[in-house]
Each structure stands twice: as C-alpha cells, then as structure tokens.
Write a structure and sequence with these properties.
4-stranded antiparallel sheet; 5-stranded antiparallel sheet; about 600 residues; 44 strands; Immunoglobulin-like; elongated; mainly beta
Length: about 600
C-alpha cells in the first residue's frame, strides 16, 4: 500500500493543516509543477491596482486600475475605474505605460453600469465596439403597466440592459430585459402569456422574487463573433443567449434599439433554472425538513459566463463558475461547469440550441459519503464539471472565474480567498497555486481568518507568453508583492512511503520532546539506509530558522538537541515551528511549539 503526502507549502502537510491549527494560509505562490502548467503570465486586479505576475509570483508590471482588468487583444489593458465591480460608470483602455488610449463614461442618470464589459469586433460596422451591463431604472407605473403583481410597490426597481457604444462613445445598440417579459396574471395586458410556453421571456412574477432594485443582478457577459450573439449571466442561477447580429442595424442606432426590443430579441437559449419558466421543479424542502432538494436548478450565484474560445478543448461550449449558493446542498461547495447547449436527450450534438429540459437530466449521487450530499438532477448538457474532493477546500460565495487553456488545463480564481489555481485535465490535480497577498489591510505574507473577500480578487486571467498585450515590452521579473523570495513546493517534494505490514523499512521522524518547550528540545529520528541527512528548522512563515544537522548517516537511531536559537545564535520567539528531515529519498516534517 502506498501513501502519498503532498506538501503544498513548506509548513503545510496539506492545505488544511494551517486551517486546523490557526486558520492561516501562506500567500503568493504555494506550488508549481512547471512541466504541466500552461506557459504564460497571470493578470489580476486588486485594491485599485492591476498586477501581471509570473509563476513564481514576481511582479512583471502594474497599472493604476484594478477592478476587472483584461487585455484587449491589441496590446492594451481594459478596465473599469473605481475598484468596485458592483458600481462602475467609467471605463478606460490603457497602454503599457498607463497612457489612456480610450475612455467612456455612462453619463445618463437612469443607467447604472456594473460588473462586466467587453471590447468586441462588430462585423456589421467593421470596427471594434464596447458592450457593458447597466441597470436601467423603472418607475412603479411602468412595472404595473407591464403586468407586475399589483400588491407590491415597485418604486426604485431596475432591470439590466446591455449597451453597445462605438469608439466615438455613441450608443449604437441596446438590449433590455424589460422588453422581454411575460406574465400570467393580467390577460388584458400585451405581456400576458403561458409561462411554460414562453421560455424566450422572463417571468415578471417569479415566486418570492418580485421586481425590485437590481432585480436580475447580472454579473458577466461574453460575445461570440462567429454567431454574432451575446450571453449574459444572472446571479440568480441562469444565463441567457441574445441575438445581436439579427437585431443590429448598421448606422441606425434607434432602429437597432427598437428591433432588439421586439420578439427578435427574445432569448435564443437559457440555462440554469427551468422552474423560472415552469418547465422544471424548484428547490424545495423534503418531507424530512432537515433535507432539501435543488429540483432541476443547476446554478446558484454563478459568475463569469463565457464561450470556450476556438481552438481550445471544448471550443464552442459554455463555461461558467457555479458558486453554488442557493442550491440547497447540505454541504455546499463551488463548481466549474462546461455545457454543450446543442445536446439533445440522446446526447447527440444537433448543431442548434436545445432547451435544457428537453435534453433531460440524470440523477447523480455523491462520489463519497463524507461529502454528505443528496442525489441531484444534473442536466445532460453538462459535459464536464470540476469540484474539489474536499468540499471545504473550494468555495466562493461571490465573484470568481474560470478559463480553459490551450494545453487543456483550466485556470480558476476563487474570489473569497483570492485563490488562483490551475488544474490538469487528466486527473484534475493542481499544477499551480497562488494566494493574493493584497488585503484590506495591505500586503500580508500570511492570510489569517477573516471575513470573505479580505484579499478578494473578482477574476484572474492567464495570458500566453506571446500574447499581443505583452509583445515588445520589458518582462523582466521584479520583486514579489511581499518582497520575499519565492518559497513554494514542486513535484520533487512528493514523498512516497511504502507500508509493508507492521514493519517500517523507511526513515522515521519522532515527535520532539518536550513539546511545547522553553529553553530547548530533543528530536529523534531513525535512518534505515545510508544517506545524507539534513534536519532544518522553519518558522510558520516558511523562513529557514536553522540548519540543525547535516551529515552522512548509516542505519540507526539518532538524537539531536535544539537549543531554540536561530543561525545567528538568537533565541527564537514564541510560536509554531516545523522541523524537517530530508534524506536522499524522503522528506518528513513535524510541528512543534516554542514558549518563552
């Protein structure tokens, strides 16, 4: 039988070690398998600054914006001004030196930009344009006239719109949810219809969620130039595909906006919660009220909807970060999901959008009883899903992103903990891991227990080394964000121990004594084969404190004493320390506590 110990940082036997002891996590790069990562640089914004870093965490470049930055494909950086994804009305496109190449401000008082935006190429204009999400104000009377339930007051209500402007800042197209609504309460109104027969429109009177301020809370969008369509995601667990090409009239903004408001602008496809259009079961409490079911709901609190780009594994499919809020799992965790919207119930790719309830569901059980999850209905259109084996290791209540890479890996950002990691497709093992050191209280080497988003990052992106945004620029690595030298584990730090019954033919490291200690402590270990042996003391930050032992050892038992001083002869402070035994074939590590 083999036992594999994976050390994701020097002072963690696993990610959970520090959490068990004191909820502390080392920031910056924690692990890197350079033979399996997709070569490039990582871009992210935090606390008003955008950072471009290499795998070791060296800062390559920064910009004085830091909300939701991304390269535009022509060597520029595009981001919102202000640092808050939930509230933005000015966007800038910057050159490498921070010079402003383009800027747009939404000055209309009844439009409130937020969360996501994109620079796209509009084939009907033959030029680039800019699209963004904005909440558009509604009056109480507009809501009542449309068929909202008259028992409520709708003052201050809003619905999201997608606005498109050209490079001169002129609105050339707009699509608004409010133009695509249906209700079944008032038959005399033009919006009346049978909800289940109208999946292309949003129900105005969803049970328990009447129209209000920021009603849809859409948080991401993407554009597919080949199909000339846009997808937009709502935090309530659905995303919608909208026809852009057939609702856009070149050089006719008013005509385009009017056309987008007709049935030509109804949803071409929607995914996530078919109960919202009466074609599926909603979440509900079971007869045993200590249990609940998600019904046919697939997404909850989701973010970062996108098409997987051409040339990448899964090209043409959707990818979305499913935060998995409101999915009514006893033990929640987040997922990254890939969806093929063209699959029918037989699993055949039809080449056109298939309504997810028509494709059907499979009942999926938990892969492990310790996850404590009930069976759930999973759409047959879901073709790939990632989740951590330990449900407590990967969960983000808000924000977050995922990105398919050319080598088949998937790069993810979990916003709550500023946690970036890249996984390999074959075994979903982590091949790179990084924690953002920038917090609400400045840069930290260690992230302690804090409320979510203390060091949050809304999204992160990986760019290839030959990306146009990097071409011709100085990519010389600078210091890390903390200023410390990189300190991370690699695949060489994997330890394999063979266990043959009760005997142990391999080295062993015993617990120090006394522990805790004040003036000194003793460390015993056993060596089974001749080997060069080092015993090294590290502090909780992963800094080397003392090289305690270095010699060639023959088979036998050894005992060494540490007087509690560092390499400079100074007595260490109170706290947790780690002692590591390294031989030619093994690495063993244990913790101990100094009390002064």
């Amino acid at each position: 039988m083999k036992t594999i110990l994976f050390l994701s940082s020097l002072f963690f036997f696993s990610i959970s070690l520090a959490a068990q002891e004191s909820f502390m996590v080392k920031t910056e790069t924690r692990y890197w398998d350079n033979s399996r990562t997709f070569d490039g640089y990582t871009l992210f914004g935090t606390r008003g600054t955008t950072y471009l870093i290499d795998f070791e965490g060296h800062v390559i470049h920064t910009w004085d914006l830091g909300t939701n930055p991304r390269f535009t494909g022509d060597g520029n950086l595009l981001d919102a001004v202000g640092g808050n994804p939930s509230n933005q009305n000015t966007w800038k496109e910057l050159g490498w030196t921070g010079n402003v190449k383009w800027q747009y401000t939404e000055s209309r008082t009844n439009y409130h930009g937020h969360h996501d935006f994109a620079k796209i190429y509009n084939p009907k204009l033959g030029d680039s344009t800019f699209i963004y999400i904005a909440n558009k104000d509604l009056t109480n009377q507009q809501c009542l006239d449309a068929g909202c339930d008259a028992q409520y007051d709708y003052t201050g209500s809003q619905m999201d719109a997608i606005v498109e402007v050209n490079r001169q800042g002129t609105v050339v197209w707009e699509w608004w949810f409010f133009d695509h609504v249906v209700q079944d309460l008032y038959s005399a109104k033009p919006t009346y219809g049978i909800i289940a027969n109208t999946p292309g429109r949003i129900n105005l009177n969803i049970r328990g969620n009447h129209v209000k301020s920021d009603w849809m809370h859409c948080n991401s969008l993407d554009y597919n130039q080949t199909l000339d369509v846009i997808v937009i995601n709502s935090v309530h667990g659905e995303f919608y595909v909208i026809d852009h090409g057939n609702t856009f009239l070149a050089n006719n903004p008013s005509g385009s906006i009017a056309l987008a408001a007709t049935t030509a602008g109804d949803f071409k496809y929607r995914f996530g919660d078919p109960a919202k259009y009466n074609q599926g079961d909603p979440p509900s409490i079971e007869d045993n009220w200590e249990k609940a079911t998600a019904g046919n709901k697939q997404l909850g609190g989701s973010h970062d909807i996108q098409w997987i780009r051409s040339g990448l594994p899964g090209a043409g499919n959707f990818m979305v970060f499913d935060n998995a809020q409101n999915l009514f799992e006893l033990t929640p965790q987040s997922y990254v999901i890939e969806i093929n919207p063209y699959l029918n119930s037989a699993g055949v790719n039809t080449g056109s959008f298939v309504n997810p309830p028509d494709a059907g569901y499979i009942v999926q059980g938990s892969p492990d009883a310790n996850l404590m999850k009930e069976n759930k209905n999973v759409s047959k259109q879901i073709v790939w899903k990632y989740s951590s084996k330990n449900n407590t290791s990967f969960y983000s209540t808000i924000g977050s992103s995922a990105q398919r890479l050319p080598n088949g890996n998937t790069f993810m950002c979990a916003m709550n903990d500023g946690h970036f990691f890249e996984i390999a497709p074959s075994d979903t093992s982590v091949v790179w891991e990084y924690t953002n050191p920038m917090t609400r209280n400045g840069i930290k080497k260690i992230k302690v227990d804090n409320y979510p988003t203390y060091n949050g990052v809304f999204r992160a992106y990986r760019y290839a080394a030959d990306d146009p945004g990097l071409a011709g620029h100085d990519l010389t690595p600078g210091p890390t964000m903390t200023g410390d030298p990189p300190n991370y584990w690699t695949p060489d730090d994997l330890t394999v121990v063979e266990n043959y019954g009760s005997s142990n033919p391999y080295n062993s490291l015993h617990q120090n004594y006394p522990n805790p200690f004040t003036t000194g402590t003793t460390i015993d270990f056993e060596i089974t084969d001749p080997s060069t042996v080092d015993v090294i003391i590290y502090d909780f930050n992963g800094n080397k404190v003392k090289s305690l032992f270095h010699k060639t050892c023959h088979q036998g038992t050894y005992s060494i004493h540490w007087d509690g001083t560092d390499n400079k002869g100074m007595h260490v402070e109170s706290g947790m320390y780690f002692y590591l035994l390294r031989s030619d074939t093994h690495i063993l590590c244990k913790k101990m506590i100094s009390i002064n």
